[in-house]
Amino acid sequence: MFGGYKDQANRLKGIITEPMTDLEDDRQYYVIEAKKDASHDHAYFDALSARMTDATVARAFYKWLMSRDLTGFNPGIFSMTAAKAAMQNQARDGFDTWMQEVCLKPHNLMDAQVALTRGQNIYPDDAYKVYSTWYENVQQGLANAKKLGKGVLCGKIHQLLGTAGKNYKDRLGKRCMPMPTLARLTKMLKEQNRWDDAT
Q1: Which residues lie closer than 8 Å to 93 by C-beta, 6 or more apart?
Q2: Measured between alpha carbons, how far is 131 from 141 in angstroms, rounded to an integer?
Q3: What tens digit of pLDDT does each residue of 155-181 get?
Q4: What is the DSSP letter of 181?
Q5: 86 φ, ψ to 5°?
Q6: Cα–Cα distance, 186 to 80 (Å, whole number)
Q7: Tally of CB atoms within 10 A around 179
Q8: In the chain, which ranges are continuous DSSP H helix?
Q9: Could you give the count of Cα atoms lying within 13 Å of 98 in the half-sphere of its Cβ?
């Protein structure tokens, strides 16, 4: 936030001075699923809306918040809920699903030349060949997955591995990607919240 940027200053002014404001963020920190039987309960939501604008309720809520014990609280750790996991799975573009399947069912995806699970180098053409075969077999079950191009696929692999921008070549000077072991790949997916436990 810089004072010279009027659009940022105006947003901050609105947050400070308005009694209520909308906060937009492209990340979902805590996701819950609303009860389906309450979606058309207008009386419930009218009463809730009235309480949200009641100054007495607002003061009581503020007092409750200020009395919370925040010992050990880490704002960088976000709770995983069933609703959030389902939302993330719906938003998957197919790459994470493929990588997870590589970890869970390597025998279904591998051929003798491909080293996706052996902690060896893999060549972009080989990676794309395995991905394409997998995609053709499972595309009907992927909600949001369009087939990735080879360049996009390799870029996503580099992003997952933290090797983006690095140029790897084998002993013959052919471009390749250094793949981790199966156990390390699984750990990376889980650490980056890209693993679907429901699979």
Answers
A1: 144, 145, 146, 148
A2: 15
A3: 888 888 887 667 788 778 888 888 777
A4: B
A5: -65, -40
A6: 18
A7: 22
A8: 6-17, 42-52, 55-66, 82-91, 95-104, 106-109, 124-138, 150-161, 182-191
A9: 28
188 within 8 A of 161, measured Cβ to Cβ: yes
DSSP state of 195: -
The pTM (predicted TM-score) of the whole model is 0.50
Q: How many residues does the chain have?
A: 199
Place of tokens 């949001």: 144
Contact criterion met (CB below 8 Å) for 179 and 122: yes
Joined tokens for residue 110:
């591998």
Q: Tell the burial category of 129 from Cβ atoms under 10 Å away from its Cβ (0-12, 13-18, 19+).
A: middle
Supply the mean pLDDT for the chain: 75
The dihedral sign for the CA sequence 150, 156, 158, 161:
negative
CA dist., res. 78 & res. 113, Å (int): 40
Classified as helix, coil or strand, 121 is strand
